[in-house]
Every structure is written in structure tokens, then in C-alpha cells.
């Protein structure tokens, strides 16, 4: 069995599997919009549209030619049929309501051109990082639902299915708290009890100097429209 590849920049991985150069791309669940911009500025895409819920749509301080952001939902894309060369869902499918995941993937298939690619990367719900996170943000069920939805897609053909490793590190618990315990995707307030359980779990897994580092697992499926 081949050991998973260690990836520090997912754009390089995306370019291997998606027609980025000269393509018209959709970044579903774009978050900060950093990857959306890089698809054009570094990947050579002709255009990249970042879509997210209204509260999360990034504001462009310095607009980039070919890059646009829009509020919307994956299960109801306001895009023409066969208008995209590639669609990215980077750690975002599990944020789609479970009851709408099938609709969202059907919409992706609709907007992809024949031969176009869907690239989905999802966190794998195991390992020490997730053992810490689940004290205040347990995504195991929705991540499993996302994988089930991908297995049900009939309009797209699976071309690649693999795991990669991505390093993540924190110098101390305060850094972990700032980065991970203020995420906009948190579904519930963090109680003092949750915070204490999280800190305890962090310290149990941290090095003697308080730092914590790990290589997280992410699963990738690359699917094409025939």
C-alpha cells in the first residue's frame, strides 16, 4: 500500500486533477476566498467564482481580474448548465445540510461541462487532532454523510480516490484556541466545560514545551462528468 503523500499546498494537488489552466472554475464553500484568488493568480484559470453562504462571502479589498464572489447555496446553484470546467469543494461538502447533499452534488453535475472535474477534499475523522476537536466540534457524522453522498452520485464517474497528509502545528494551547475555537463553522457555543475538556485533551497530546503538531488526513475524490 502506498503511503499517503504529504501536501503543504493543496493548489499543487488540485492542478494535477482539475483543468485549472485556462478553465472556468467554481469554488463551492470558498471561505476566505484565498484559494479562489490563487486559482487565477497562480493557477492560470480564466475565471474563478467563489460561492458561500451570505455571512461568509469574502470582501475583496483589492479585486482580482477574473475572480468573483457570490452568496448562494450548493443545492441551488444560479449557474447555467455545463458552464464550469471544474468545481472544487475543499472541506465544504460536510457543511452542506445532510438532507441537501444529494441535491448539491446533482447541481455540481449539472453545471459541469462534459469532461469537467469535481475535486472534493474532506477531513478524515480520526487521529489526535480530531480527538481534541470533538470536545467542542464533533463532525464525525456529517463527514460520514458526505462520503455516503459521494458514493451515491450517479451522474459523475470516480477517477481518483486517495488520502493525503497535511501538517498543522500550534506553539501552545492559546494559539489552538484562537485558530480553532473561533471558527465560523462552529454549530454551538463553547461552554466553559467544553473549553476545559479541550484544553485537557490538548495538553495530553502536546509536547513538553506545550506545542502540538500532527499530519492530518484528508480524503480526496476526483469525479468527472462523462
Describe what this molecule looks like in 3D.
The protein has 226 residues and is of the alpha/beta class. It has a domain at 5-123 and 138-165 and 218-224: Vaccinia Virus protein VP39 (Rossmann fold), CATH 3.40.50. It contains seven helices and eight strands, in the order E-H-E-H-E-E-E-H-E-H-H-E-H-H-E. An eight-stranded mixed sheet has the order 1-7-8-6-5-2-3-4, with helices on both faces. Strand 2 (24-28), helix 2 and strand 3 (47-52) form a beta-alpha-beta unit. The longest helix has 14 residues, at 192-205. Pfam families: Methyltransf_25. InterPro entries: Methyltransf_25, SAM-dependent_MTases_sf. Keywords: Methyltransferase, Transferase. GO terms for molecular function: methyltransferase activity.
Amino acid at each position: 500500500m502506498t503511503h499517503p503523500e504529504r501536501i503543504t499546498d493543496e493548489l499543487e494537488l488540485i492542478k494535477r486533477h482539475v483543468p485549472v489552466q485556462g478553465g472556468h472554475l467554481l469554488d463551492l464553500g470558498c471561505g476566505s476566498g484565498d484559494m479562489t484568488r490563487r486559482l487565477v493568480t497562480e493557477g492560470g484559470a480564466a475565471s474563478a467564482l467563489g460561492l458561500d453562504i451570505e455571512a461568509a462571502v469574502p470582501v475583496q479589498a483589492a479585486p482580482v481580474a477574473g475572480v468573483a464572489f457570490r452568496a448562494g447555496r450548493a443545492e441551488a446553484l444560479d449557474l447555467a448548465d455545463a458552464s464550469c470546467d471544474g468545481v472544487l469543494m475543499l472541506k465544504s461538502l460536510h457543511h452542506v445540510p445532510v438532507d441537501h447533499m444529494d441535491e448539491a452534488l446533482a447541481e455540481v453535475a449539472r453545471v459541469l461541462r462534459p469532461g469537467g472535474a469535481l475535486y472534493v477534499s474532506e477531513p478524515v475523522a480520526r487521529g489526535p487532532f480530531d480527538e481534541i476537536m470533538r470536545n467542542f466540534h464533533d463532525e464525525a457524522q456529517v463527514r460520514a454523510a458526505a462520503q455516503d453522498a459521494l458514493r451515491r452520485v450517479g451522474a459523475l464517474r470516480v477517477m481518483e480516490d486517495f488520502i493525503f497528509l497535511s501538517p498543522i502545528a500550534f506553539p501552545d494551547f492559546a494559539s489552538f484556541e484562537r485558530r480553532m475555537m473561533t471558527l465560523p463553522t462552529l454549530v454551538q457555543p463553547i461552554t466553559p466545560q467544553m473549553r476545559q475538556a479541550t484544553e485537557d485533551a490538548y495538553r495530553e497530546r502536546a509536547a513538553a514545551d506545550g506545542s502540538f503538531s500532527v499530519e492530518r488526513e484528508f480524503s480526496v475524490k476526483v469525479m468527472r462528468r462523462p
